[in-house]
Design goal:
Blueprint: H1 6-23, H2 32-51, H3 66-72, H4 78-88, H5 92-99, H6 105-118, E1 125-128, H7 130-145, E2 157-161, H8 188-195, E3 199-204, E4 216-217, E5 221-222
Parallel strand pairs: 2-3
Antiparallel strand pairs: 1-3, 4-5
Helix pairs in contact: 1-2, 6-7
């Protein structure tokens, strides 16, 4: 909608929201005006975020530009690329400590759970899977004790946005207009993380129905920045 006149932009936006509401069979169609108004207010933020160049240090620990280097070299094995990149990244030390028995994955998950509770004012999580995360950490500890290969992300704790399916965890896309669902299967990206040894700890807050970039949720509160 960038470049459209305000009235044309408003009409396009309403048509989009009407179509999305019909597709998802939303019951609270009387909130259409509210949804449109909230998206309208955040269009500038979305445009600003979309225009940002991703030139900073990768916060997840993969070396900068490593993937493009693998691709330019003709490497088409995605799993090999991920393994090699992770081994070179800043996460490598964490994984090495877990696999080497110097960092107990159960204690690490427990520490993460305590930090989440201590910073509850951030509204970062809509659901925290305390029991599930600890169970997976205990299983990882058992696999390590047996000397088995545990994956390049063994013991790395991750959170998933409340719009991406995680098997067994409630998902509601940050909305009260949709009933919470408990997916039977995880999204491929989540399944890949778990297959690599990562531990999903919960579902995080977001803009309702993903219609903004700053995570100002009318039902669950705005998401604060940990810094």
């Amino acid at each position: 909608m960038a470049g459209q006149a305000p009235l044309e932009q408003k009409h396009t936006l309403r048509s989009y929201v009407e179509a999305a509401s019909a597709f998802y069979q939303l019951n609270d169609i009387d909130r259409l005006d509210d949804w449109c108004a909230r998206i309208q207010r955040n269009l500038a933020d979305n445009d600003r975020l979309a225009a940002l160049a991703c030139n900073g240090i990768d916060p997840y620990g993969l070396p900068e530009a490593t993937l493009s280097a693998f691709q330019s070299a003709g490497n088409t094995d995605a799993h090999t690329s991920v393994d090699q990149m992770t081994a070179q990244g800043r996460l490598a030390n964490h994984v090495e400590q877990v696999v080497g028995g110097r960092l107990d994955p159960v204690a690490h998950v427990q520490a993460c759970l305590e930090r989440i509770k201590a910073r509850s004012e951030l509204n970062a999580f809509l659901y925290v899977d305390d029991e599930g995360a600890l169970n997976r950490a205990n299983e990882l500890r058992r696999q390590i004790a047996l000397g088995r290969q545990c994956g390049p992300l063994a013991g790395v704790v991750v959170a998933v946005k409340d719009c991406i399916p995680v098997a067994g965890l409630p998902m509601k896309a940050g909305s009260k207009s949709l009933p919470a669902v408990n997916p039977q299967y995880s999204a491929p990206c989540v399944a890949a993380l778990e297959a690599a040894g990562a531990i999903v700890i919960g579902m995080t807050n977001l803009h309702e129905l993903c219609y903004g970039g700053v995570s100002d949720n009318p039902h669950y509160g705005a998401v604060g920045h940990p810094q």
